């Protein structure tokens, strides 16, 4: 009996490690930007290209920066959730339109609804690089001091919104 | 007839060939930049298709990041500065050779730990077995029985 105990123990440890490993999502790479100031930029707005937007305009506010594109399939999946969230007036959502021709982006918003206070056009994807974007959609929660507090990689789900993002927003708004 | 057509076709395609070429021939300075860019991007992982290096990936992001590296080389940044730029945005995961630090200790030394544990286990097993073999001496009665079975001791039963 005793001589089976050690192999069994090793086996159980191995199974535990494999189970954890298999349940991790390899696409979710922890961002080094969490807890750091949101990178500065100045970009034209999508609807009014003459007008500019910079993150420092929102100092003192808690806000969401949602990276989206008309060519991004998962963006359609999360879009209704963002539209609903915008109606609740809890936290302003700003859109970073990533590597998208302007007409396509505008048509997409017309078709699916526009939850954004405004969208910024990052046609070349340079701001995306500064924010470490690698899989659209991505959503950043930025606090009053302009520090990134949370990053959602991939679509925002109802679950993540209710259990993680909104409680954090409430905490940061105080 | 066919031969003449073929000739015309060859002539046409050789004339049109250069028109179809997309990328401009690199100048001497570009070759050096390009070589450095490739060397750096081979050290980096493409986050879109994670088992490909930035050098080999055709993902849009990889192209953008190669452009970024190229521009930074032209701006006179060092290789280390460019690597730091990437790690600052995408984390240690972008490097195929992650730095040695607290969080990556297990990654670097885990395999050696497993090797040592395996060797220790093997050594223990071999020692235990050696002891068991040494202990296995036969009593006089057992020896007699073994000899009987082997047909050595008792000649009468031998073939």
In a few lines, what is going on in this structure?
The complex is a heterodimer of chains A (174) and B (159). Chain A has 174 residues and is of the alpha/beta class. In chain A, 40% of the residues lie in helices and 18% in strands.
Write up what this structure looks like.
The complex is a heterodimer of chains A (174) and B (159). Chain A has 5 helices and 7 strands. With 174 residues, chain A is α/β, with parallel strands linked by helices. In chain A, strands 5-4-3-6-7 form a 5-stranded mixed sheet. Chain A is elongated. Chain A has a single domain (35-173), classed as Glutaredoxin (3-Layer(aba) Sandwich). By secondary structure, chain B is mainly α. Chain B has 2 domains: 27-99, Cytochrome C biogenesis protein (Helicase, Ruva Protein, domain 3, Orthogonal Bundle), CATH 1.10.8.640; 103-157. Chain B has 6 helices and no strands. The A-B interface holds A 26-27, 29-33, 99, 124-126, 128-135 and B 47-48, 50, 60-61, 64-65, 68, 87-93.
Which sequence of SSEs, written as H and E, runs from N to C of chain A? HEEEHEHEHEEH
CATH architecture descriptor of chain A: 3-Layer(aba) Sandwich
Distance between the termini of chain B: 94 Å
- End-to-end gap of chain A: 60 Å
Kindly state the percentage of residues in helix of chain A.
Answer: 40-55%
Number of domains of chain A: 1
CATH class of chain A: Alpha Beta
Counting DSSP H or I runs of 4 or more residues, the number of helices of chain A is 5
CATH topology of chain A: Glutaredoxin
Largest sheet entry of chain B? none
Tell me the count of domains of chain B: 2
CATH class designation of the largest domain in chain B: Mainly Alpha
Structural class of chain A: alpha/beta
**CATH homologous superfamily placement of chain A:** Glutaredoxin
Task: Considering the chains and any ligands shown, give keywords for the structure.
heterodimer; A: 174 residues; alpha/beta; Glutaredoxin; 5-stranded mixed β-sheet; two-stranded antiparallel sheet; 5 helices; 18% strand; B: 159 residues; mainly alpha; Helicase, Ruva Protein, domain 3; 2 domains; 65% helix; 0% strand
């Amino acid at each position: 009996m005793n001589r089976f105990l050690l192999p069994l123990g090793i086996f159980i440890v191995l199974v535990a490690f494999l189970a954890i490993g298999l349940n991790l999502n390899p696409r979710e790479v922890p961002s080094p930007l969490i807890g750091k100031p949101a990178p500065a930029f100045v970009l034209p707005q999508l609807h009014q290209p003459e007008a500019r937007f910079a993150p420092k305009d929102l100092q003192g506010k808690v806000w969401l920066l949602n990276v989206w594109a008309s060519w991004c399939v998962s963006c359609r999946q999360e879009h209704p959730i963002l539209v609903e969230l915008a109606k609740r007036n809890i936290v302003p959502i700003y859109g970073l339109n990533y590597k998208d021709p302007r007409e396509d982006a505008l048509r997409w918003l017309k078709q699916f609804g526009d939850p954004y206070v405004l969208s910024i056009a990052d046609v070349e994807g340079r701001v995306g690089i500064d924010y470490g974007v690698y899989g659209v959609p991505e959503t950043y929660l930025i606090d009053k001091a302009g520090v990134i507090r949370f990053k959602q990689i991939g679509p925002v789900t109802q679950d993540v919104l209710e259990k993680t993002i909104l409680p954090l927003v409430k905490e940061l708004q105080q | 007839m066919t031969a003449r057509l073929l000739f015309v076709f060859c002539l046409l395609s050789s004339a049109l060939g250069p028109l179809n070429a997309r990328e401009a021939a690199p100048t001497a300075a570009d070759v050096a930049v390009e070589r450095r860019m490739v060397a750096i991007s081979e050290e980096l992982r493409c986050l879109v298709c994670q088992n490909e290096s930035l050098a080999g990936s055709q993902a849009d992001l990889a192209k953008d990041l190669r452009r970024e590296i190229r521009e930074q080389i032209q701006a006179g940044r060092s290789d280390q500065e460019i690597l730091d730029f990437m790690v600052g945005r995408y984390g240690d995961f972008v490097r195929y050779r992650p730095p040695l630090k607290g969080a990556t200790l297990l990654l670097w030394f885990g395999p050696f730990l497993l090797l040592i544990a395996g060797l220790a286990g093997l050594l223990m097993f071999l020692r235990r077995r050696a002891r068991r073999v040494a202990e296995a001496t036969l009593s006089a009665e057992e020896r007699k029985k073994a000899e009987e079975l082997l047909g050595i001791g008792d000649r009468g039963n031998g073939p």
